[in-house]
Amino acid sequence: MHAQADLACAQAVLRNAHPQLRLKQQLLMSKHSNRTGEKGSSLTPRQHAAHPEPKRWENPGGWGAGHMNDKAPFNLWDAQERQYRSLTRDELQWIRTNFGDGEIATSGWFMYIETANPPRPVPLTFGGMPVMFTGIRELVLEPIPSFPFPNPRVPDPCPTIHWPVMTFPTLEQNVALLTALQPIANARAIFYMPHWTIIELEYGDGRVYEPKSLPGTVGGRTTLYHHAEAPLECGPGSQNEGVNATTSAGIKLRHFDGQEVFTGSQNEGVNATTSAGIKLRHFDGQEVLTVAHHGFLISKEVYHPYVGEDKIGDVIDTRPELDIALVKLTSTAGRKFTNACYFQAETPRMLLEGLKIESGTWSEVDGMSSGLVSLLTYGKHYFKPKWPAGHPVIEFREWRADSVNIMFGAVNNPICEGMCGAPIVQCETGGVGGFSHL
């Protein structure tokens, strides 16, 4: 049985693996649990517990999960209705008593609380709802395009298509929806959010859309439109770059753990640092280690911890479209790299197909510079692959599919550098749903 690996791209988007990248669903030994970047270090185990107690999550496989630091005396998730309920007056007062008089708001799937006194340690959920603690008067942006195209009076082009609230449509439903929309709008991408849909319209194709000319409801869901040369930046995030990274969430995904491995290039100005990913066994029995492809453009030699020190292998195959390179390890390194321990993050156990990553699931990456970082899958992004001019029209079924995530943790640029290539592991299943990517 084969599975397709995924990887993560900027803005926490997880790209589904290319059909050519088919690796046996068996993770071998990769996650080298050792400290990196220290002179004279070698492939020796990092000395700390792989999975410290207490347990970090309750039911992290979907909406309503509870983080270990969630101390709210109430639960906002309604499992029967599959939605979060509103705060009661007493619950709102409890929050104000504990965190001050800053603004408190919810979007239907996440909450943000303005406070000068954030809790320590910071919870990632509050009453079972994902939460961001922000500074006072810090603006939190949501992915709500302002283009004036939607009109609730324009008929729904596919009124028979429905899927449960706060879930993703199936591949077949997505194809049917885009097909129904095709006569009135030329889409280049579509985002399925927890409560609404955002359609990116092709830009520069000569099409002109008048205000209120497109349906405000598509597939029974509120639908918004984005029409610009630049793609949509999708995700809630802080507008204030000066906010303490430990108290607020970010969406720039470039992280992971492990050890750092370096290319043979020592060119100044080129960040060739990349984290090791996972060790895989191909169906023919060959074992390889995944790394970020962009770190090995000049040399195929892989060193640890610094260039010129221990050579641990050579790049033997690449998937540039996925930013994945496959490394054949030396016999010594091959014996010492293991998937069994992934620092504080969940141990990787299997590969996940992108379409099987559910809305509301939590995943983890763990880095030498960042510590444990958590990700919440909240959206699905289908987009038209780039193809040479004159190529036959790409069918909707062949569009690429990404999972859209928000990252919780210390995510400023210095911390992010060198984290590319690390696996993103689901908390509930141990499935690898992607790799960190610039």
Briefly summarize what is shown.
The chain is 7% helix and 31% strand. With 438 residues, it is mainly β.
Shape: globular
The main sheet comes to: 13 strands, mixed
Structural classification: mainly beta
Count of domains: 3
Q: What integer is the average pLDDT?
A: 78
Stretches where pLDDT falls below 50 for ≥5 residues? 1-52, 238-270
Distance between the termini: 30 Å
Strand content is: 25-35%
What is the count of β-strands? Answer: 34
Could you estimate the helical fraction of the residues in percent?
A: under 10%
Helical segment count: 4
Radius of gyration: 22 Å
What does this structure look like?
Residues 32-57 are annotated as: Disordered. The chain is mostly beta strands. It folds into three domains: 2-53 and 254-435, no CATH class; 57-138, no CATH class; 150-226, no CATH class. It contains four helices and 34 strands. The protein has helices at 89-99, 171-181, 331-336, 413-416; strands spanning 2-4, 7-9, 13-15, 22-24, 57-58, 66-67, 77-78, 83-84, 104-106, 111-114, 125-126, 129-134, 140-141, 150-151, 187-192, 196-201, 214-215, 217-218, 221-226, 237-238, 249-250, 260-261, 274-275, 279-281, 287-292, 301-304, 310-319, 324-329, 350-351, 362-367, 371-383, 400-408, 423-426, 431-435. Strands 2, 3, 15, 16, 18, 19, 21, 29, 30, 31, 32, 33 and 34 form a 13-stranded mixed β-sheet that branches. The protein has a five-stranded antiparallel β-sheet with strand order 24-25-28-27-26. A hairpin with a 4-residue loop joins strand 27 (310-319) and strand 28 (324-329). Mean pLDDT is 78; it is low at 1-52 and 238-270.
